[in-house]
Amino acid sequence: MKLVVLCALVAAAAAWPNFGMMADSPGGASDAQKQHDVNSILWKVYEEIRDPHLKELSQTFDPLSGHYDDDGVSARRLMQELNDERLLEQKHWFSLFNTRQRQEALMLYDVLEHSTDWDTFAGNAAFFRVRMNEGEFVYAIYAAVTHSPLTQHVVLPPLYEVTPHLFTNSEVIQEAYKAKMTQTAAKIKSHFTGSKSNPEQRVAYFGEDIGMNTHHVTWHLEFPFWWDDTHEDHHIERKGESFFWVHHQLTVRFDAERLSNYLDPVNELHWDDMIYEGFAPHTMYKYGGYFPSRPDKVHFEDVDGVARVRDMLILESRIRDAIAHGYFTGKDGSVISIRDSHGIDVLGDVIESSTYSPNPEYYGSLHNTAHVMLGRQGDPHGKFALPPGVLEHFETATRDPAFFRLHKYMDNIFREHKDSLPPYTQQELEFDGVNIDNFYVKGNLETYFEDFEYSLVNAVDDTESVDDVEITTYIPRLNHKEFSFIADVTNEKNHDVLATVRIFAWPHEDNNGVPFSFDDGRWNAIELDKFWVMLHPGHNHLDRSSFDSSVTVPDVPSYQFIKDRTEEAIQQGKELHIEEFESSLGLPNRFLIPKGNKDGLEMDLVIAITDGQADAAVEGLHENTSFNHYGCADGIYPDNRPHGYPLDRHVDDSRIFEELHNFKHIQVKVFHHE
Questions:
Q1: Angle, nearest 10°, between helix axes 309-325 and 343-352?
Q2: pLDDT tier, 21 (very low <50, low <70, confident <90, very high otherwise)
Q3: According to the UniProt entry, where is the signal peptide (predicted)?
Q4: Kindly report the CA angle at 196 between 191 and 200, in degrees rounded to 5?
Q5: At a CB cut-off of 8 Å and minimum separation 6, what does 146 contact?
Q6: What is the pLDDT of residues 67-76, one digit of tens each?
Q7: Which residue, 220, 257, 273, 458, has most beta carbons within 10 Å?
Q8: How far is it, in rounded angstroms, from Cα 556 to Cα 582?
Q9: CA gap 266, 268 in Å, rounded
């Protein structure tokens, strides 16, 4: 798996004999060679393969002669589809939400996933690269590299440089074509979608941040809704709960960005109400035309071939009914209780819906169908034969502010369930013998915008006879100055104790200056960090940099950076240390806190130190700094507690928290400087 997180024994990470990319790895090829091949197979994916070896493989490799752990069943199935000319043509749009197109992409994923050596993996990649639809191919490669044991140290290049059309305004793409045709180097300025007359423009920097887009699409690659345990080698633990948590965090963070810009928190969508805000994406497919627009104030319409509005209301009613009763009914008639801390996992599987849903025929697929329903409202009956909308791609979905309205709607359903559980008692929340004496922030909470530049070389058509010319675009992105969380903690016991440190923040008041109650505030809490530490007897001084947060990851390096480092390592026989970029699952580390404003966005900041021994699902957590809170796709999730603990259940009386010695609540301000 690609998660650079602690998902198995931490000691195993320390015991790995070689993190270097030059080491031999499963499959018979060095990691550096695998990185080179992945770089080359995705480079100019709409054009001919440029690498001589892979180009030859594309013509000479026979998929039926490869080595597989499924006796070649997957390869024979895909070859049959290819020979029968049933596969989607090249130079056509692709959407994962299109059932047939998804099936085709997953046929190739299966072939790659079942390959047992690198010659077979690379041969299949080269062979199908020139024969399958480019979008299907890219998705299959990204999914396979994410999940295959052959590619555990391969760093995937940023999607926004592989398929720039999905991340870049069409006006910029047109300028890029002009630069290519005139063979003139260009550095083109990008603008966020919309105009100043649209209030949503104030928060476009969030939904259109390519680092955040990368995080969103990466999560859905790591935890795909199509994952089927019967065809894979393991079960993804707490997948439904992680689905809830990652989208809950995006939703509450979006609200914090809105309050930073003097906008009210986002309202939820309703199937029987109008969609008040329209959206013009200003983006285009590489092939297939422009992404459809949606005007203001349109009512939901039935979408031909997808669902009726009435169907969505029925599914919602069935799910809310199950929450009220405290159980779901399995397709075999079994009763599946959700009145415990694991119920959120079942509910997440149902709402998404993934293959883990206990009864998809009855409860449907609320999330996935809703994405298509909302994405098609510009052409619900196919009258104009428009391609899929931005909400039908995980890469582009957050560009549309309606994405957050849709997820606020689902988030409120999740809250219904969470609020049905009994509140934690003071005894459950206490960590006996551990006292937080002091808690504060060292350094100023200040944000600013900086220009980010990325390549558009892969956005334009090309031939080998025409030299590349440097074409880039730059766009403002949010960043913040480094700061640290400081806590002075006393351990009254005469021995070391393992502790879990959990830090959250939420806006102190709404857009009208009315303070949020503690119960509403904790539901809107943004998780800022979670880590384990060994507390020694007596006084302990904790100093945690914002750059070390387990919530965030470094921004993905540029395609050219990965290529250059790989070729340098191969030519010089050196190790290539880019393992810190193996996973882009997490918000960028420059994106930890909301924008704030010039007056200072007042926020409640809380720290909870809980019993690490009871929390920890694996050993050695205090020795590891790479834990990621967004989930664990290939092993045991390290934290036994629910996501958001101890703020995940409703609070009848905030004095329970105020009286805890292992909990501290302060107020801070986040300033933004132009």
A1: 170
A2: very low
A3: 1-15
A4: 85
A5: 1, 2, 156, 221, 222
A6: 999 999 999 9
A7: 458
A8: 9
A9: 7
- In eight-state DSSP terms, residue 294 is B
Give the side-chain half-sphere CA count within 13 A for 230: 3
Q: Whole-angstrom Cα distance, residue 314 to residue 333?
A: 19
CB-based contact 628:4 (threshold 8 Å): yes
| Count of C-beta atoms within a 10 Å radius of residue 425 | 9
Q: What is the pLDDT of residues 238-265, one digit of tens each?
A: 999 999 999 999 999 999 999 999 999 9
- Dist. CA 630–CA 245, nearest whole Å: 7
Residues 404 and 207 sit within 8 Å (Cβ to Cβ)? yes
Host H or E run for residue 503: strand 497-507
Task: Give the integer Cα–Cα distance in Å for 641 and 215.
Answer: 23
Strand partners, 532: 500
Q: pTM for the complete prediction?
A: 0.94
Distance, in Å, from the CA atom of 385 to the CA atom of 379, rounded to the nearest integer, reads 8
Q: Does 422 sit behind a cis peptide bond, omega within 30 degrees of 0 on the bond before it?
A: no
Place of tokens 């200040």: 446
Contact 67, 75 (CB under 8 A): no
Q: Enumerate the H helices of 589-644 as residue ranges.
A: 612-615
Distance separating alpha carbons of residues 479 and 475, to the nearest angstrom: 13
Amino acid at 499: A
DSSP, collapsed to helix, strand or coil, labels residue 200 as helix
Residues sharing a CB contact under 8 Å with residue 81, sequence separation 6 or more, in sequence order: 87, 104, 107
Which residues have CB under 8 Å from 203's CB, separation 6+?
Answer: 254, 257, 258, 261, 263, 401
Indicate the residue type of 626.
Answer: S
d(CA 157, CA 185): 22
Among 402, 392, 389, which residue's Cα sits nearest to residue 276? 402
How many angstroms separate the CA atoms of 51 and 377, rounded?
A: 43
Q: With contact defined as beta carbons under 8 Å apart, do 472 and 455 qualify?
A: yes
CA gap 306, 372 in Å, rounded? 8
- How far, in Å, CA of 285 to CA of 544, rounded? 43
Say if residue 215's pLDDT is above 60.
yes
